[in-house]
């Protein structure tokens, strides 16, 4: 089954975080991961997160859907119509849904949305250096690593002629 993207709602965000497990690979500072890894589902925190993102002109948040289940979120952040740029970010819910091709599919859909609906001409992304899986997926989709600093690899995907 293929995934699709749906605009993130409060309900979807609660569903996402009810079974969310933080991935150590997204933490450059592992002590932060140690602090947060057992924090569990906190409905007030999820509401606050949803509210903090709502109505932001420079951000689009999507639930990654598999059938009627939420299995992750993908966001286009720092949307800048003048510079024609935005930044891609993605988090699948837990290991049960990783390494099954869903992240690649979701990123591909987000890229199409960014180029077609937002009209950007390039997309940025970053990845903690140890996050080889994330880098592999970005590179598979055509992102080029153009710099590395402070423990992060910085990526860029340019819209190609005819796309
Ligand atoms: C990164 C992420 C979005 C990828 O999605 P996914 O569904 O797990 O990945 P896919 O199944 O689509 O693809 C995984 C690919 O990476 C490869 N891979 C898996 N582990 C790897 C590793 N340790 N090193 C290199 N490649 C790896 C797989 O073989 C597969 O490659 P292939 O498609 O060429 O066969 C997902 O794992 C995730 O949400 N991780 C936690 C959050 C995160 O890292 N977000 C990105 C940074 S903000």
List keywords for this structure.
single chain, 163 residues, alpha+beta, Aminopeptidase, 33% helix, binds coenzyme A
Question: What would your notes on this structure say?
Answer:
With 163 residues, this protein is α+β, with helices and mostly antiparallel strands. It has one domain (3-158): Gcn5-related N-acetyltransferase (GNAT) (Aminopeptidase), CATH 3.40.630.30. 33% of the residues lie in helices and 32% in strands. It contains five helices and seven strands. The chain has helices spanning 10-18, 30-36, 43-53, 102-118, 132-140, and strands spanning 3-7, 60-66, 69-80, 85-92, 122-128, 144-149, 152-158. The chain has a seven-stranded mixed β-sheet with strand order 1-2-3-4-5-7-6, with helices on both faces. The two termini are 26 Å apart. The model has no long low-confidence stretch (mean pLDDT 96). The site of coenzyme A (COA) has 22 residues, from β4, α4 and α5.
State the gist of this model:
The chain has 163 residues and is α+β, with helices and mostly antiparallel strands.
How are the secondary structure elements laid out?
Layout: E1 3-7, H1 10-18, H2 30-36, H3 43-53, E2 60-66, E3 69-80, E4 85-92, H4 102-118, E5 122-128, H5 132-140, E6 144-149, E7 152-158
Parallel strand pairs: 4-5
Antiparallel strand pairs: 1-2, 2-3, 3-4, 5-7, 6-7
This protein binds coenzyme A (COA).
